[in-house]
Design goal:
This protein is an alpha/beta fold. It contains 12 helices and 11 strands. Helix 5 packs parallel to helix 7 and helix 8 runs parallel beside helix 9.
Amino acid sequence: DGAFTGGMVFEAMNDAGSQGDDVLLILNDNGQAIEENVGALHQNGQYASIAKGMGWTWMGGPIDGHNAVELHAAVQQALATKGPRVLHVRTQRPSLETLGLKDSTVGPAHFQHRFAQSLIALARKDANVVALTAAMAPGCSLDLFREVFPHRFFDGGIAEGHVVTEAAGMAAAGLRPVVNLYSTFSQRAVDQWIHDVALQNLPVILCLDRAGLVGEDGGTHHGVFDLALLDPSRIPPFGPPHGEPSKKPFEKPTPTEARASFATPREQNPNCQQRSNAAAAWTSCNGAPAPCTFASDR
């Protein structure tokens, strides 16, 4: 489920491979993150080469994960082997209809939609504006930006730290990068935000979607840590006043002015209040030489 687009799996494989640990890794390959997986490894399917290069035994596959007999036999054979080894299993993620669920529809009144439309309008005026995310395009409505500017949209997969550093490199080269992540997953990129963006004073805008409590999205998606994590970087997140995202922070940051970070809610135009340090954040985003963060409740 997108795990091989992030770096931690490679760190673990590199470590276990060097130690000869007795580990069975089952690669559940369903080709999906939130959308279809991205990246060269998924495109080329060279999982066996990666595993062998890190000292892991390739146990074959892909095995049909929906064939219980075939799967049981393959797992038993793999368990009888010692050392670090990988079994490749192919599965298909069930549809929402199969699970009796339906996807929530994002409309013009939702913050994500308004964010995307504001960014598209800005990008029409400035050819240097680019958008980045980490496998969250539909949830952040950046799929709308991608439709209009496919060559100015970058999806790094489930690799938030990489995406933020990529944005820093783009900013250093003169582009105007806007990164949109779910608030809860921004914690994976705090180090990169501090060292690669804030300390370099680079004009990167970080937008945090699904700030606050998110209800049915579940405990892993509650965006409740952004203030605590980002305040020390002198880029406190702030929310849109009166439920209306402002275009000013998107228009202000230039290579000599502000970096910015924002967080927006998931629901339609709620009567939300600005988060703490909002006044300082507005001042920062309107010309002071400091980065900004933008956050708001769901």
